[in-house]
Amino acid sequence: MTAVLIVLLFLIYVMIFNFSAEDATASSGVSQKVTKWLLHLYYKLQGNTGGLTVVIPAGEVDEAEAVIRKLAHFTEYMLVGLLSLWIWLLWNDKRLRCGAFVLVQLMISASLDEFHQYFVPGRYASIRDVLIDTAGGLTGMLLVFLVSLCIRKSTKS
């Protein structure tokens, strides 16, 4: 089980590195495609298809893209926080120590990710993104803590 979690964590870090290594044009292109797909799905589910094709109001892709990009940061690091804490808790039952270690890991990896982007053409480092990444990681950690608490309570009953 631990090996599978470590491989998944490694793959997430590889994915984060690869996304950060894309220049501004490639990164924006991916974000635009994802945003258009999500808006298309949203309007289709709402029944606003305007016939056979989905009509997305002008300018809405650009507005939604910024939100989608930040959600991507949050989600990537939520998975990092979740997997990292899960791995550490499998090795050690000292929850507070494991949580502190993973929090430091999250802040360092988010900072290194932004530092890496600084050297990519058209990209820049953002403290706000480090904070979003860390918040995502903390959310993943919180999920692990809540699930482990529920499991402990159910086994005591």
TrEMBL record:
<protein>
    <submittedName>
        <fullName>VanZ family protein</fullName>
    </submittedName>
</protein>
<dbReference type="InterPro" id="IPR016747">
    <property type="entry name" value="Phosphotransbutyrylase"/>
</dbReference>
<keyword id="KW-0812">Transmembrane</keyword>
<keyword id="KW-1133">Transmembrane helix</keyword>
<feature type="transmembrane region" description="Helical">
    <location>
        <begin position="71"/>
        <end position="91"/>
    </location>
</feature>
<feature type="domain" description="VanZ-like">
    <location>
        <begin position="6"/>
        <end position="147"/>
    </location>
</feature>
<feature type="transmembrane region" description="Helical">
    <location>
        <begin position="131"/>
        <end position="151"/>
    </location>
</feature>
<keyword id="KW-0472">Membrane</keyword>
<dbReference type="InterPro" id="IPR006976">
    <property type="entry name" value="VanZ-like"/>
</dbReference>
<feature type="transmembrane region" description="Helical">
    <location>
        <begin position="98"/>
        <end position="119"/>
    </location>
</feature>
<dbReference type="Pfam" id="PF04892">
    <property type="entry name" value="VanZ"/>
</dbReference>
